[in-house]
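Recall that a protein's primary structure is simply its ordered list of amino acids. Everything else, from secondary elements to tertiary packing, is in principle encoded there. The following example makes that idea concrete.
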Amino acid sequence: MSVKKKSSLLLALAVAWGAAAEAQPIHGPVVIGPGLNSGRTVYHQVGNRVLYADTLYTLTGQYHVDSLTSITIQPGTVVRGDTAACLVIRRGAQILASGQRCKPIVFTSLKPAGQRNRGDWGGVIILGKAPANKVEPLIEGGIIKGSYGGNVANDNSGSFKYVRIEYPGYRFQLNNEVNGLTMGGVGSGTEIHHVQVSYSFDDSYEWFGGTVNCKYLVAFGGTDDEFDTDFGFSGKCQFLFGMKDPNYWDPTGESNGCESDNDASATSTATPFTEVVFSNATLVGPERTDALIGTTPIGNTFQYSAVQRRSSHLKVYNTALLGYFWGLSLRDATTQQAANDGIVQWRNVSIAATLMPTGSASVHDHTRWAGVEAFFDTPSFNNNGSAPRNPSTLGLTDMTNLNDPNPVPAGGSILIGTADFNNPNLSGLDVVTYRGAFDPNVEMADQWTACWTTFNPQADIVTDAADDRRLPRLGALEQNVPNPFNPMTAIRFAVPTRGHVTLTIYDTNGRAVATVVDQELPAGAYERSFSAKGLASGTYFYRLTSPGVDIARKMVLMK
């Protein structure tokens, strides 16, 4: 090896090792809010605040960031929610939560790994001054104090990107839970993208009015709807992935893919109308593979791929819906008339629902609207999927493993090359050639979900013992045990997403002396043994690389 190459490798090892050491939390846990077990006690943040990545935080009570103040959250920060805890960004305040692709901000349950469950804590609520069709409404039925709405369409509530929200949805009362991410009157000046909500006990996302545009959203394992829009929301949302866990559903209502209302009344004329644009969504119900058809547990409440009602003017384009029992339910006369008038639009949508509702001649809700099939099957709309069909007909690569899904369209999928962006309602969105959320020309390991999402949040371990403080990180490389060692040691590591993983041993001259791992692995935690038989005593580096991960540590061989 040349001196130049050797120096470069040693420098890379030193930088990676230093970064790994830097990433270790050295403070915490720090309790923010009114205190542990304080329930829904309201707490008002004083002035501006910064949450740091090297500190583990526990959120308690109803934590309010009031008007004219802000909360800044560094990339890689972890916040654990106590029972009923909520983070509420009030109208006129800002949240500056800008994670990074491989350093997401994580809100999760306070409970230890293996014991976390939906509804362990409340969730994140952002309120703004953008229009809604109600006057000074209170968010979440008044349980959470805070009104929203106004006339500032471009209102700026800050940034919320590369963020995970896990196990939210605390039930304050029957049918009154907090969503994973709730947005009330959030304006178009707000930046929201690359967000994942996992195992919410209510909707994963719900918008109440507002004009904010959102991209790259993941809804995973929620019990109610994945995406719910109400009270005049009129933003544009593109690249949405939702997937149900067949063992979790809303015990008191319906579990649908998406749901949209204008107001509480079936004849609502409140303005602005709910007129959100969804494009490039892939929503996967409980029957995500053909083998799962008919196996959903008895008593489940899964129903429609999408429900639209109460004068909603929702518009959906270039989308794939599969694995739900039924297709569309366009309810009440006002919504149906808006569909006939071309205001409600479903275009270039592929549905693979497996059953026909009682009284229907297709997968759609014929009993509420006899014209639903004729509407959906209008030739110029380029929709398909009114007849029952298996999820495999949409041709996703591999949806077998709930914790390692691959929803990328495989070669020959009907989703490839069938998108259309000529509709003026799609102005300003990214123009792509495919239906659904994923580019068929990009491997899952390199998709927009790579490195910052996880589909097994239960596996992210948080330990806060005084001698072992570790945050759940998307790339983790632990100190080998034992260390020093002779000649065997164990190395534990975690990778964030499926991809090629290497674990290599180097001597102090930068020479690779052993390869422990060199293969493609799914996301998860691993342990590998290393034998140093044949090597001399001394200091060695071991280096982990995978998509978005490059970490190194030192170990000592003592013979």
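Confidence is low (pLDDT under 50) at residues 19-26, 461-474. The first strand starts at residue 27 and ends at 32.
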